[in-house]
Amino acid sequence: MPDINLLNNESHYVNLLKDDSYEAYTVLYKFYMPKLYAFIYNMTRLKDFSEEVVQETFIKLWENRTTIKSDTSFKSYLFTIARNYMLDEFRRQINHPVFAEYINYSNHLNISENTTEHRLDFQDFRAELDKAKKKLTSRQAEIFHLNKETGEAVQSIALRLGITEQSVRNQLSTALSILRKKMKNFIPLFLFLFQ
Amino acid sequence: MNISKSRIKRLNSLFVKYLHGVVASDELSELQMLVNVSNDEELDFSLRSLWLNNEYLLYLPTEEQQLRMMQRIERSIQKSPKAVLPLHKRFIRISSHIAAVLVIGLFTTVCMYLYRDNRRLSVYQNNEITLSIGNGQEAGFTLPDGTTVRLNSGSTLRYANNFGKTNRFVSVSGEAFFDVKKDETRPFIVHTNHLNIEVLGTAFNVYAYDRVDFVEMTLLSGSVKATSTKHPEYQIIAKPNEKVICDVLTGKLTLQKADANYEAAWIEEEIVFKSEPLSRVLEKLERKYGVCIHYEGNPALLNDLFSGHIGKDNTIDDAMKIIAVHYLLKYERKNSDLFLFTCNRE
What we know:
The structure holds two protein chains of two kinds.
Chain A: H1 10-18, H2 22-44, H3 47-63, H4 74-94, H5 99-112, H6 122-133, H7 138-149, H8 154-161, H9 165-182, H10 187-192
Helix pairs in contact in A: 1-2, 2-3, 2-4, 3-4, 7-9, 8-9
Chain B: H1 5-19, H2 25-37, H3 40-53, H4 63-78, H5 85-95, E1 102-108, E2 119-123, E3 128-133, E4 139-142, E5 148-151, E6 155-160, E7 168-179, E8 188-191, E9 195-199, E10 203-208, E11 212-219, E12 224-228, E13 235-238, E14 242-247, E15 253-257, H6 260-263, E16 271-277, H7 278-289, E17 292-296, E18 305-310, H8 316-326, E19 329-334, E20 337-342
Parallel strand pairs in B: 7-8, 17-20
Antiparallel strand pairs in B: 1-11, 2-3, 3-6, 4-5, 5-7, 6-7, 7-10, 8-9, 9-12, 11-14, 12-13, 14-15, 16-18, 19-20
Helix pairs in contact in B: 1-2, 1-3
């Protein structure tokens, strides 16, 4: 059974590419570009960044075409180029305070509707959230940030700000209802982030 | 390289879930923890095997994204051929001691719509900086290399965050005036949809609005190389008071005589019309003043050639009244909607 992950006659095209063939280059990049994009997007959840990495990877491939080594597979060689751009960004993303909420939200979308129209990358998500947060008072924003974005407990927030726990909870629930109204296009999000 | 087998195994199984969009909250925080204690080699080891052995069908790029990536890849690798160099060298010699003013014009065929937010500066994740000017506005600013730019109404300028490091590359849609800082080691390249312009320390004007049939470029002084983006083999080196016209459909370039002072008049905040069809006059006014003009007169008049001059102290009402009187039309205004219609003499 042919492996769908590999291009038929791949080594043939790689050899042609080493001999400067632009046609072979286009065959290879048309086959691998969507796969590489999907992989990088799944890693970083950043649309513009993923496009950029794909472009840089294939531009580098063309620049280094004559020195491609034959001891690793071509697919592995592509990974080596892309990896250098991708890893730092992935580390940054996975450590971002609201990334976990975003992943919950986007996984939920995939299960429930599976449409590309609802595809919202992490950058868009943060922009929407920041925009909605502008409608909060500074105290509300502070409490929302401490509780939802850094995971600090209500008791600890109350102690730190010198107010009662009930007052923290009231502020939080007002903040959430304001955000909910502002971000009504992204309702599934609130199943997770703001429960 | 010291790779912990059990950690890699756990990383692998978490990455599989993560990449397939089914990772649970507690698993994600475990993955975060593991990623933070792993070095790049360990992550490479795990991710490489996933890349080699799996197909990721979630979040494939859209058609539009694929096209965009292909165009950028192709544009970028076409920049490098050595064959361009001799021409380029010749070009340096021609233009090194003169300032050039260049105008690229496009005939718009569709009414431009108003933007709500007139002026936007945004920095994207991919480190591209975009400056957009809405209709009825102009703005001036300075690029990182010291080049000054004026953007006319309804225009956009884009450049990479690392602009000036190895090259000086900007994209323009609309109209812009550049006073380029001289630097013979880093050519200044202006990209428009249909025409690439390469200069080295010179002043020039770009007129390249979207949705057009022809792209024009007029040079005041100095020398500039214009290349058709569709067919890079079409290249013309323009001299003062020459106009390069690029046919958007075929990508072909032709050379004509032109009056460049008239093309660049907008910098003085004037509009000059010289035997231009009324339809194009109205389009220019729409952009310049940020209004929408509804023409309800005799359609044949739209091809009539109009000549005139609108100074910077004139309002759009002044301009419209002149046109109305000239063509025996009636003029009315509702906010930014302007109406020109036939007088009914009973």
